[in-house]
Design goal:
three-stranded antiparallel sheet, 5 strands, about 5% strand, globular
């Protein structure tokens, strides 16, 4: 699940027995691989480009940025071992931090994005986020894209690194979408031709 209107794009697992209002987007995904992709900056770059905003908050629009997001495998439910490992590590570390500090996701990510905060647990979470981004890029076979430091950039070089990451990721995601659409079209044409041929006497 994720909040529809949010300062920080954060995803969490939730019990299917919970009842949610219309301010929460719910996705029927159960593996860490899917969560890892959605929580990564690969997906966040895509989502912030395609979703509207409300004041200073992102208005996450599933029809625009989830349905159209090309996961590393066509099926978002596909389990990718490396993503399972890093995703579970980050999720459980984040949960343990919030429990220990008695804070929620917003406060946690405010601290993660605060360049003045160098507390050891925060630095550890930042490194896990960077490792997660690298693992997601590897799942796409895009390890040539450098992963920028996690947090709010404070120097021209850091800002340039984030911009390069976002531009490169978005370009490749759109290219991947186009490639998969073309494959589906070809597959559909092939199936249609076979069905037409099968109908001949």
């Amino acid at each position: 699940v994720t909040a529809v209107y949010t300062k920080h794009l954060c995803f969490s697992f939730a019990s299917p027995q919970q009842v949610f209002n219309n301010k929460v987007s719910v996705f029927g995904l159960t593996c860490y691989s899917a969560w890892t992709c959605l929580q990564s900056r690969v997906h966040e770059s895509f989502a912030r480009l395609l979703s509207p905003t409300l004041e200073d908050r992102l208005a996450y629009a599933p029809s625009r940025c989830f349905t159209t997001f090309p996961f590393p495998q066509s099926d978002p439910r596909a389990v990718i071992p490396d993503l399972e490992v890093i995703g579970q590590a980050l999720y459980e570390t984040r949960a343990a931090y919030m429990l220990a500090e008695q804070v929620g996701l917003t406060v946690t990510y405010n601290r993660l994005k605060d360049p003045q905060n160098h507390d050891a647990p925060i630095e550890h979470l930042r490194r896990l986020h960077e490792q997660m981004d690298a693992a997601v890029l590897a799942a796409y076979d895009w390890s040539d894209i450098p992963v920028p430091l996690y947090g709010t950039p404070t120097t021209p070089d850091q800002k340039k690194a984030v911009e390069h990451f976002e531009d490169e990721v978005i370009d490749r995601l759109f290219a991947l979408n186009a490639e998969r659409a073309a494959e589906e079209k070809r597959a559909g044409a092939t199936v249609g031709a076979k069905q037409k041929g099968a109908g001949k006497p």
